[in-house]
Design goal:
By secondary structure, this protein is an alpha/beta fold. The protein has helices spanning 9-14, 18-43, 58-66, 86-91, 96-103, 136-151, 169-180, 210-214, 228-243, 272-279, 283-293, 299-322, and strands at residues 78-80, 157-162, 185-191, 194-195, 198-199, 219-224, 249-254. Helix 2 crosses helix 3, helix 2 crosses helix 12 and helix 5 crosses helix 12. The radius of gyration is 21 Å and the shape is globular.
């Protein structure tokens, strides 16, 4: 299939400063280093749950989050992250030490050890932790972003989902509602060509997920997900349209999942030559090559930044590892409430809609 032209790359470059180019670079390295360290911790037995790498997909999360208004006072844009959106979580203000605390279920983690990986909420920084059933966060974010529109708040919500989720009922129900209500929301479809161990062609007959967007009247664009600047430009445009009243949009990220579904998946069902082909299109190497070619960094400076980031990540991981697991009694805290609530009108013998 032929894809429509993406954003004007020259315009994107003109709109960013050198400091911003370097910030994007550091964000890519931070995501890669955090996941590499996490894989080591998993193999050492410090992580009890699953580890889901975004190897080869970092540009999607980083480029998308960089296009948002990132604040820490609860007034900025928000994201519903997935397990492969590490770069977006860290860019939105999630701290590396909290990232490791979550995966190692420490009592100091944002959820007190009750939830794993990126399933944590920080409304001030715009993180809306995912629920496990696939597709559900489209519905949740449709509701949240509807409140933005109704209250006149100049905010946008970004939802990340893999392409397999687009075959769930919740995904379509949420998208139908969001589209009809013109919710200021952008859906990021991470078209990484696999849903667990099922290839995309066995999951849908469509060549592009933009075709699903057309069915709901959404504005949509498909981009090379290994090109962080192209992702940034596309999401910047989609967010601007959503913010200005156009309603919900969709951005398809075309790339490849270079690791198995999770760390326990040996990926035996994948042709090694296919992985090698996508390794040559590694998003970090591509971006660093571009930075060097345009005189923004030297190869030596790239290596220096990489070492600095790796040391920062190692320190955060060691801090989290040294902290205690939660006390057993805390398993019963912040789960139920003793407060009584009024019975909703829908449960009365004779419901009165006027009381809604």
């Amino acid at each position: 299939m032929s894809y429509p032209e993406g954003p004007d790359r020259d315009a994107i470059v003109r709109g960013l400063t050198r400091d911003q180019f370097l910030e994007i670079h550091r964000s890519l390295l931070l995501a890669r280093a955090a996941e590499e360290r996490l894989e080591i911790l998993f193999k050492q037995g410090h992580v009890g749950g699953g580890v889901y790498r975004s190897l080869g997909q970092e540009a999607g999360a980083v480029g998308a989050a960089y296009a948002l208004r990132r604040r820490d006072d609860g007034t900025g844009d928000i994201i519903a992250q997935t397990v492969r959106a590490t770069g977006a979580v860290l860019l939105m203000g999630g701290r590396p030490v909290d990232y490791f605390r979550q995966y190692m279920a420490r009592g100091t983690s944002p959820t007190g050890g009750k939830e794993a990986n990126v399933h944590w909420v920080d409304y001030d920084r715009g993180l809306v932790g995912p629920v496990s059933p696939l597709g559900t966060m489209v519905e949740v974010m449709a509701g949240i972003t509807l409140t933005f529109r109704m209250r006149g708040e100049d905010r946008v919500g970004l939802v990340f989902y893999g392409d397999g989720a687009s075959s769930t009922g919740a995904w379509h129900e949420g998208l139908s509602f969001a589209a009809s209500q013109r919710c200021p929301m952008v859906l990021m479809v991470e078209a990484n060509q696999w849903a667990f161990s099922t290839p995309t062609e066995k999951n849908t007959r469509l060549d592009s997920f933009m075709e699903k967007a057309a069915g709901y009247g959404l504005h949509a664009v498909s981009v090379d997900g290994t090109d962080v600047l192209e992702v940034y430009g596309a999401v910047q445009g989609a967010v601007a349209r959503a913010r200005s009243g156009w309603g919900t949009g969709l951005v398809e990220l075309r790339y490849y999942r270079r690791k198995g579904h999770a760390q326990h998946d040996p990926q035996e069902y994948v042709d090694p030559a296919e992985i090698a082909m996508w390794e040559a299109r590694d998003p970090i190497l591509r971006y660093e090559t571009w930075l060097v070619e345009h005189g923004l960094l030297t190869e030596g400076e790239c290596a220096s930044v990489r070492r600095e980031i790796e040391e920062q990540i190692e320190a955060a991981a060691e801090q989290a590892r040294s902290e205690p697991v939660p006390e057993p009694t805390t398993a019963l805290e912040d789960v139920y409430t003793d407060a009584s609530a009024h019975m909703p009108w829908t449960r009365h013998a004779e419901p009165d809609p006027k009381r809604a």
